[in-house]
Design brief:
The structure is a homodimer.
Chain A (H helix, E strand, L loop, with lengths): L1 E6 L3 H12 L4 E5 L5 H5 L14 H14 L5 E2 L2 E6 L4 E5 L2 E10 L20 E2 L2 H4 L7 E6 L5 H10 L2 E6 L11 E3 L6 E4 L3 E5 L4 E3 L2 E5 L5 H4 L5 E2 L2 E2 L12 E3 L10 H21 L2
Parallel strand pairs in A: 1-2, 1-6, 2-3, 6-17, 7-14, 8-9, 8-14, 9-10
Antiparallel strand pairs in A: 4-5, 5-6, 11-12, 12-13, 15-16
Helix pairs in contact in A: 1-3, 1-7
């Protein structure tokens, strides 16, 4: 049982991890990528105090090397669910489960909103994890929504497993080479089916599928944690970074604008301190 | 008329200034010291993400040089009052006044609480500014509360002006050399008088004075801004760093715990963004 599980490898996650480490807590830090992919893309960051004119990549390297110097590294996992289990939380990530007394959500904000109908088919045709669920669709027909080039190797893996794969890359310079792949340059608008997912709809037409993989950085917070209070795409938190669920905290872009590195590291720090206070009060 | 006046030269103030500059606003940045004296005293800061194992002095230098590289420098002034003047604010600092449409308070939290009776004698014997009011007490008897060694040159200046000065240093390695000075190693507990300040009390005894200078980094927020909602020593703010007074924002230690550099720069960033939004909505 960990004291805390941090979900997200961006600036908020790094800051939370540094502080939990310094505060002597036993935690696991889970991130889809080894480090924030989004931050690394920024060309020039002029307002991260103390690191003038740093590139996105430079900031990410500075944050990671700070964490590594303190012996902390994120574990590369895609967390697909957080479940309240009687005073603690169970996180599912691929075939692994993690138990933690508290959770800090800092997986960023989704640039792509969920698809209409998506939530209803999670576990019934909709999957977020190629390596966890890919084998279920061997030889079958699947859709693969690839939100970012960094997921392309997972898309390729799924194409090779499937009999046929409709791949929808949401970026320009895609390179899908699997002979099983058919690239569709449209964004899915709706999912439909009965007990299981059957069709992926675009504006006017649809494709029939046995399953769909949605490859993106993180789930919408409301999908990840049932019962979490959100306001649009954002998790509602108070000034101590507490959510409406006791023991679950949130920090960084997922809590709302401004989407700023300084705000993220500040909230990661605050959330870590709130976790320590919560643990002391709930022994 | 400035778009904004930032009060405080610590990490929150630097972050607010960087962002207002980048956002193209016309602002003045006022600070008692050229740079946060408190931050510079920290031996080792391990949780400012991206600057591992930085000294307090090193962090302060990094923050200042970041600001300077962007052409921003704090103006060394002690702000003694913020007054609401019909849709904008007037700040008094020594003999100068500044007009601004918005204010960001980030002058830190007072380690020393106010003295009983202090608020009632402001302008009637109690002063916070040696260079502004010192000449009023030429040849007279004054008390000088010196909270920090960095104010010692102001204390010396006052001693030389006065006929007699009771100096109370709140630190160990004081060095008061003026022949007019009598050092008292007790902390004043209460101020009393009629229309003007007459006595400075310690636990059991008192000294009679014509005036008293209280030399510390900043006023308590409730003294600085009348009508500001506070909770103990802290300014009450929402997640956008808005106070109860429209147009006044607060960031950093003054808004409450945890007292952390990362939190301060995060809030300075948020407050600057909130100022820009406020200016757009209140043209």
């Amino acid at each position: 049982m960990y004291d805390c599980a941090i979900i997200g490898g961006g600036p908020a996650g790094v800051s939370a991890a540094l502080n939990l480490k310094l505060l002597g807590k036993n935690f696991i830090w889970l991130s889809t990528h080894a480090v924030s992919h989004k931050a690394a893309l920024a060309e020039k960051i002029k307002n991260y105090p103390g690191l003038p004119d740093v590139s996105g990549d430079g900031l990410v390297r500075a944050l990671l090397s700070h964490a590594q110097a303190m012996g902390i590294n994120p574990v590369e996992k895609f967390v697909s669910g957080v479940y309240d289990t009687d005073g603690s939380f169970t996180l599912t990530a691929g075939n692994d489960n993690y138990e933690a007394r508290t959770v800090i959500l800092c997986a960023g904000v989704q640039s792509s909103a969920g698809i209409e109908g998506e939530e209803g088919f999670v576990g019934r045709g909709v999957s977020y994890c190629a390596t966890c669920d890919g084998f279920l669709y061997k030889g079958k027909t699947i859709a693969v929504l690839c939100t970012d080039k960094s997921f392309e190797h997972e898309a390729e893996y799924l194409c090779d497993l499937a009999g046929k794969a409709y791949v929808m890359p949401l970026y320009a310079d895609y390179k899908i080479i699997s002979p099983n792949a058919e690239v569709i340059l449209k964004k899915p608008s709706r999912l439909s089916g009965g007990m299981r997912l059957e069709k992926v709809w675009f504006k006017d037409d649809s494709v029939s599928v046995d399953g769909m993989f949605i490859l993106r950085g993180a789930l919408a917070p409301s999908t990840l944690v049932r019962g979490l209070e959100t306001d649009g795409a954002h998790v509602v938190v108070d000034r101590a970074c507490r959510t409406n669920i006791a023991g679950i905290f949130a920090a960084g872009d997922c809590t709302g604008r401004p989407y700023q590195y300084a705000k993220s590291v500040g909230e990661g720090n605050v959330a870590a301190h709130s976790v320590v206070q919560f643990l002391a009060e709930n022994k």
